[in-house]
Amino acid sequence: MEERARRIVETAVELAEQGGFEAVRLRDVASHAGVALGTLYRRFSSKEDLLIAAFELETFDLERRVAQRPPRGDTASERVSAFFAMATRGLLRRPNLARALLKAHAAGDPQLAKRTAAFNARLHDLVVAALRGRAAEAAPPPNESERLLTHALTRVWFALLLGWAGGLHGQATVIDEMSDCVELMVLGAEQKQRLATA
Amino acid sequence: MEERARRIVETAVELAEQGGFEAVRLRDVASHAGVALGTLYRRFSSKEDLLIAAFELETFDLERRVAQRPPRGDTASERVSAFFAMATRGLLRRPNLARALLKAHAAGDPQLAKRTAAFNARLHDLVVAALRGRAAEAAPPPNESERLLTHALTRVWFALLLGWAGGLHGQATVIDEMSDCVELMVLGAEQKQRLATA
DNA sequence: CCCGGTATTGAAACACGTTTCACTTCGGAA
DNA sequence: TTCCGAAGTGAAACGTGTTTCAATACCGGG
């Protein structure tokens, strides 16, 4: 991302941190970033587009943290739970920003489907790595069982985050229910494997 | 819901069926329903509020269909999968409407948290009924295992629907991945039960 | 029947995402 | 250096969700 676009996204993040989705007024973003409104719209097709770019920035952060301190644990369940707990705490550390990013992501503009899919793929890679207990790089592509598991888990996580954003429950619920769900699904996957090979 | 409010919601549904979320212009809703804009705003605090009311109407439909033809199957997995398939097809039958309702639901205004929670509770009841293979009325409240299962499953379903709405995948993917996930989680729940009693 | 308050109306105003446009600036090719 | 096209600018305009307000209609209690 070139310098100007990055500055725009960073400005959006700052405004979102302070006042959430509504505080990201594109006129303000443009003027704070020192560009004209038209320039902003040349780089980002919409407010959602801009905030999804911001979400991608935040995801780099998560990937960096995971690389530095990979989720530990003796079992797959423990590692995956630890990963989601880390991701949840990282994202919810700045609640206003998190709500803004989630709202943009949840809006699900079909025009941004490609971006959203790429975003999900990065998340899946991190989950697969936690599941296997080793780094994501140079790893074989996930098998069918892993694919099913990671897709389902990231979906549960996403819905939990939206529930948090909508005031349905708190951060602890996100982490706790996520753990329960990981345990359940990993158990199920193991059991399915057992049945298939029997 | 009194007559005037119902007429407003029905008008919103008609407009959404034709042109989706953006086609529900509140000025149009008001004039087509034969009320002033201010009257609409006395009943519904926002466009989202209105569309969530519409979602509740649609859910009555689902409940009616489930009551008339409860999901069949010899196993819990089959019944729950059948239920979600039925619900998915029912909702996605009118794609524009579905996208509009999902968008409103996903926006997750904290002011509407109560409504959203009540909505989710109704869905959970239907899933629990399918899981048990009997009607939802006069049934004992779900136990912890059932609660975990139904929450996780409705979350996966919700995320899948949002993915569909965002153009990430088609209706078949929603139904198929939902089935896979149901199987996995029911297996996991049974296995967990086994481990706990052993 | 009359009164008082509440709901409804119609219309205007406001905010903000988005678009448009005429003008300027900039960077590289000739 | 000059020129061209792309990018940027500033400002205005537009659409739609939301709010506001004065005027009017409605309705139950005296």
General description of the model:
The structure is a homodimer of 198-residue chains. By secondary structure, the first copy, chain A, is mainly alpha-helical. Chain A has a single domain (47-197), classed as Tetracycline Repressor, domain 2, CATH 1.10.357. Chain A is built from 9 helices and no strands. In chain A, helix 8 (144-165) runs antiparallel to helix 9 (171-197). The longest helix of chain A has 27 residues, at 171-197. Chain A is elongated, with a radius of gyration of 18 Å. The model of chain A has no long low-confidence stretch (mean pLDDT 96). Chains A and B meet through helix 6, helix 7, helix 8 and helix 9 of A and helix 6, helix 7, helix 8 and helix 9 of B. Chain A binds a DNA duplex (30 and 30 nucleotides) through residues 22, 25-27, 35-39, 41-42, 46-47.
List the topology elements.
The structure is a homodimer of 198-residue chains.
Chain A: H1 3-23, H2 26-33, H3 37-43, H4 47-68, H5 76-92, H6 95-107, H7 113-132, H8 144-165, H9 171-197
The structure holds a DNA duplex (30 and 30 nucleotides).
Largest interface: A-B, 41 and 41 residues
Quaternary structure type: homodimer
**Envelope shape of chain A:** elongated
* Tally of separate domains of chain A: 1
Q: What's the count of strands of chain A?
A: 0
The percent of residues in helical segments of chain A reads over 70%
| CATH class division of chain A | Mainly Alpha
Essential attributes:
DNA-binding, 9 helices, Tetracycline Repressor, domain 2, elongated, 198 residues, mainly alpha
